[in-house]
């Protein structure tokens, strides 16, 4: 891969030639997690460098502060993560400095800290974007034939929607055969994807959270036996800026946005092979499943978003597809735990399947469970073959087999929150929408 790109970024009314935004900058900056008191920024350089950020409240450039200096090295592939202290509920403008030189970027670089609304106001409204399966072509390492990835302009379409954050639901990069056996191959694949020019503006001005699936973990349909899983675990932690990793092992974790809570699950690190004949075989594993049920029981969020790389609810054990149903005892333990503990507000979010759909499981004596699958972003889409995908829980009119992304808006007063799901195509045109009230999930 070249150490820098010459590319053109199109913004409304402007046409910017940008030379790698500086020969030292390889990818980013990317805005990571946000809390009331701090935000994390991420960047990758082409060679060892000194990294720091300047930042100030919007409209108050005279109050600029500087972060600590972080040194990137060749050993960590030029990656730097920097935590910036913040005040609650504030939008900030930031600037990137490499080797004491300010890097001029042709798009907004901003972030926001979360609001301190508790005991003061209703929780703020917010919108987040979500998607999965982001394949970036590299001809010399791709399989022969028609390129599998495309329509990278979808990332600029997402940015224009101005979401508070982007939720990446797995297959965020696609490791190839050439990558699987070495640390250098794995890190180079992650780096190649992250440096995609069309992605840079979205990275720089929107917060990002992620979980993984098989392709950013290892080979297709890979499981706990993958021989390089410790290396891909390290790479995932290096390239993403979640608030924490491994709460229950692997990459598992949780985060809040206003009054909603998100539970990021690891469906690979502990996973038994799909075709292991033992019905008690694990997908999440006992420790992670118990943590999830405990954390959901404790949570008071009106919407509890459970995020995983693969489909959770689809009851059909299709031989060509992966899904939680292939792990029948653990699948039932999760469903029974949600019901017996009377856990309200659960909504499943996932990717993997290269088509989008909304599933709804009716349950006797309690509220229905929803599972929103959103896929793909830039990988190959199922297309017209999506009509052959079996799923008796699918809600009519929600199946979509082309590249797309989702937007979820949470609004309304604290005791009457409402969730609006919208699915948009790569041009930003709405495909369908659906509304769910928190009151319906009790």
What features would you describe in this structure?
The structure is a single chain. By secondary structure, the chain is α+β, with helices and mostly antiparallel strands. It folds into two domains: 24-112, Immunoglobulin-like (Sandwich), CATH 2.60.40; 126-441, Purple Acid Phosphatase, chain A, domain 2 (4-Layer Sandwich), CATH 3.60.21. The chain has helices at 154-160, 183-194, 200-205, 214-217, 229-239, 286-298, 328-340; strands at 6-11, 14-19, 25-34, 38-45, 49-57, 65-66, 70-72, 79-85, 91-98, 101-103, 110-112, 126-131, 165-169, 207-211, 253-257, 260-264, 304-308, 346-350, 357-361, 369-373, 404-411, 418-425, 430-437. The strands form five sheets. Strands 5, 6, 7, 9, 10 and 11 form a six-stranded antiparallel β-sheet that branches. Helix 2 runs parallel beside helix 5 and helix 6 packs parallel to helix 7. The longest helix has 13 residues, at 286-298. The chain starts with 5 loop residues before the first strand and ends in a 5-residue tail after the last strand. The model is unreliable at 1-21 (pLDDT under 50).
